[in-house]
Amino acid sequence: MWLRRWFLSLMARYPANISHRVCALLIMGWTATQLAGAESRPSGSQRVLLSTKDAARLLVSQVKPEYPPVAKLNFIQGHVRLQLVVTPEGAVREAHVVRGHPILAASALKAIRRWVYRPLMTRAVPTPFETLVDVNFALKARKIRQFPLEPELDLKRQVQPPVILGGPPGSSLTSVRLRVLVSDEGKAIDSQTLGGLANYCEAAREKVKNWNFRPAHYGNLAVPWYLDVDVPVENPELPAAAYDPDEQ
Fold first, then answer.
1. Per residue in 67-93, pLDDT tens?
2. Which residues of the chain form beta strands (DSSP E)?
3. Torsions phi, psi of 155, nearest 5?
4. Residues 192, 225: one domain?
5. Residue 27 burial by CB count (10 A; 0-12/13-18/19+): exposed, middle or buried?
6. What is the pTM of this model?
7. 172 shares a domain with 152
8. Among 134, 100, 72, which Cα is nearest to 225's?
9. How many domains does the chain have?
10. 34 lies in which domain range?
């Protein structure tokens, strides 16, 4: 109300032509201020990239991955690196394996998807973020000489890899090559793009989630394992750039 009275008094002080110019300048200034304010306010949907250390400071609930017995038995150890996408509320929405032994990676995925973070506040607005997490699986042995020289290769020789049941569903002239992490229950729990059209990588990853596999076996024991597959996708109507993992 006071703003309206001030504006009318200001208009009365000047001739009509000057008053119109003053009015236009005031409106332009107010509009620019509003637009600038809108641009400076975060939408809350833009993902922020956090370092591993910064993300660790927000961690409030950390489920420790179980060390798989078959990995212990075969002296398998090392780091699993995962890429996480965390919601504004602090829940892990996505978790993907960047690298790591398949048996250890499956255990890490199962635990990390239950981690909880404190919301990341950006200008007082909860914001989703992306980060990398390293999970270390280390064996405690009294004598390092007890370890075989190439435990991962020794295990690989004994594992029967997973198989797609019924073969890849559908057919297409276009496909995306994925490295799929198949669980011990025969389900695709994660995938990594190895090659193909970039526009169709996400569609291929979603499609492979519905496939059924015969899981890998170590003797009579089903174990998580990687399988490289070509996933058929719909033929693109427009040219798309080829996916190159080296550009990541």
1. 999 999 999 999 999 999 999 999 999
2. 48-49, 59-61, 78-86, 92-99, 116-117, 120-122, 125-127, 129-137, 159-160, 163-164, 174-182, 188-197, 213-214, 216-218, 221-223, 225-233, 242-243
3. -70, -40
4. yes
5. exposed
6. 0.75
7. no
8. 100
9. 3
10. 2-40
